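Propose amino acids for all 190 sites.
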């Protein structure tokens, strides 16, 4: 297949726009102290036990937060949580932008990764959400180790270790990968 010069320039223009957008989001997240809402954070607030005492009640709270036409959190909450998964994602973004020549992004990405590396609320090897999570099928309390959050954290830390001279980031990522293998891997089921 022959690629025309205009198709190549269109792709590079799209990549440049994506990099600018990612840099803007990274800067905004840093200004917000890496805190923001999450689709499942409806039960982050200290609701009375009568409202959260049961799967269906928690699901209603989560769905109201996820589907309301406005941000319901503004009615009762003054601050958002800092989420390890987001720190891992923003750390990755910062490192990728730095490798693409955006030197300013390296410091922001590293700041997110340092906060992530220092977070031991779900244990020394893994990460979790700072709020109770109620999904359609399961519930787990705030601070429970979570493989999804941990995988995003590991990815960010590995990128940080590979891009900077911060070897401790890679050490924490390797410890988390070991946790996954030891605690979650079921050889017969994969």
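Proposal:
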């Amino acid at each position: 297949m022959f690629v025309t010069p205009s198709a190549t320039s269109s792709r590079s223009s799209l990549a440049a726009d994506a990099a600018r957008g990612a840099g803007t989001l990274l800067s905004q997240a840093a200004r917000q102290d890496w805190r923001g809402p999450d689709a499942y954070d409806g039960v982050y607030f200290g609701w009375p036990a009568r409202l959260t005492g049961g799967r269906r009640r928690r699901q209603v709270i989560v769905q109201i937060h996820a589907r309301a036409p406005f941000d319901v959190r503004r009615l009762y909450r003054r601050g958002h949580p800092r989420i390890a998964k987001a720190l891992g994602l923003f750390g990755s973004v910062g490192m990728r932008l730095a490798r693409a020549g955006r030197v300013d992004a390296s410091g922001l990405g590293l700041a997110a990764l340092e906060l992530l590396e220092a977070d031991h609320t779900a244990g020394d090897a893994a990460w979790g959400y700072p709020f109770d999570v109620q999904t359609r099928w399961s519930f787990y309390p705030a601070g429970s180790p979570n493989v999804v959050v941990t995988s995003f954290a590991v990815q960010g830390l590995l990128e940080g270790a590979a891009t900077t001279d911060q070897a401790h980031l890679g050490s924490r990522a390797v410890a988390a990968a070991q946790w996954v293998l030891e605690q979650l891997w079921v050889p017969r089921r994969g």
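The CA atoms of residues 133 and 140 lie 5 Å apart. Helices lie at 5-31, 49-52, 55-67, 84-99, 103-118, 147-163, 167-184.
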